[in-house]
Write a structure and sequence with these properties.
The N and C termini lie far apart (77 Å). The protein has a five-stranded parallel sheet with strand order 1-2-3-7-6, with helices on both faces. A two-stranded antiparallel ribbon has the order 4-5. The chain has twelve helices and seven strands. 43% of the residues lie in helices and 9% in strands. The chain folds into two domains: 11-322, Thiamin diphosphate (ThDP)-binding fold, Pyr/PP domains (Rossmann fold); 324-354, no CATH class. A hairpin with a 2-residue loop joins β4 and β5 (195-196). By secondary structure, the protein is an alpha/beta fold. The radius of gyration is 21 Å and the shape is globular.
Length: 354
Amino acid sequence: MNWIEPNSIDVNPIQQLNEQGVLTGETSISDEDKLEVYKWMVKARRFDELAVKLQRQGRIGTYAPLIGQEAAQVGSAFALGEKDWIFPSYREVGACFVRGTSPSSFFKYAMGHLHGGILKEEGIFPVQIIIGAQALHATGSAWADQYKTNDAVSVAYVGDGATSQGDFHEALNFASVFQLPVIYFVQNNQWAISVPYDKQTNSQSIAQKALAYDMTGVQVDGNDAIAVYETMKQARSLARDGKPVLIEALTHRMGPHTTSDDPSKYRAKEGEEEWGDKDPIFRYRKWLEDMQLWSEEEEQDLNASIEEELKQAFNEAAETTTASLGDALGHVYEKPTNRLKEQILEWEGSGESK
C-alpha cells in the first residue's frame, strides 16, 4: 500500500549572491544595470522608512512596509519588458518604482487621494487589497494578450497568505489549461499578518504547488537580487511561449504587516535576528564594493539625492487638492449607467459641488 504515502518533492532554492555578498553563480547583468538594481533597492528602502515615520506622525494613512523584500521586488521587475503588465498587492512599492511609478503617487495613495497610486500607462494595474484577487486579474490580462497576439507577459505579485485563497488556485488552473503568458510571483515573507507560513500550508514549498497544474515551479532566494533577476528573466521567456510559471521567492517581512500591526506580539526575536543577517541590501552593496563598483562616498551621495527627491515628492502630494465625490463618481464606469447618472445629478443638486 505504498501509494498512500505522500510523495516527496525536492525543491532547492536558487541562490547566486550569498549572505556574505559573494557571487556563487553566473549572471548576465551588465555593470551599469548592477548599479541600477542597487539604487532602486536603496530608494525603495528609504521611501519605506520615511513612509513609516510619516504615518506615525499622522501625515499619511495606514502603510504596508516592504523592508526586507527589496531584492525580490526590484530584481523581478527589472527583468520585465516594457510591454509586460504588473498586478500588485499593497506592498509592491519597489517593483512599481522600477516600472516608473513616482514616490509622490504612492504618497497620494497613502493619503487617500483619488488619483494616488499607479497608472496603467506604466504597465501597472491598481493596487489590489483583496488577498489573491490580482492572480485572477493577471490571468485575464494574459488571456487577452494571447487572444490579441500581443508580445506581453502578465505578472501577479502575491504573498504566501494569498496561496491559501481559492482565487490563487483558480488562476493557476485556468492559466495552465489555456497555456497563458503569465507569471505568479509569490513573495513568501513567512507571515500573513500574524499567521506563520507553516500554518498556511503543509506542503514543503509553495513552488511545488505548480506540479498540480502541470506548470513550471521554482523556488529562489528572494533576498538575492541577482538570482531573482535571472530567474524572472528565464520565467518570462517561458511565459512568452505560453508556459505559465510559479515563482516562490523566499524572503522575510522585516517590519510589521502594516503600521497598524505589532509583530512583537507574535514573532520571536531569535528568528528576526537570523533573517537580519540575510539583508538583501547589505549583501548586494558588499558585492558591488568588492568589485570596486561602489564606494562610501557614492553611498552618501545616493542617500542625499533620494532624501531630497522624497522630500519634494511628499510636499507635492501634501499640496494636491483633495478630490470631490463628483470626481469619484466619474470613475465608476466607462459609460455611466442610468442609476449612476441619477446619483451624479443628486450630488450636483446637493450644493456640495459648488
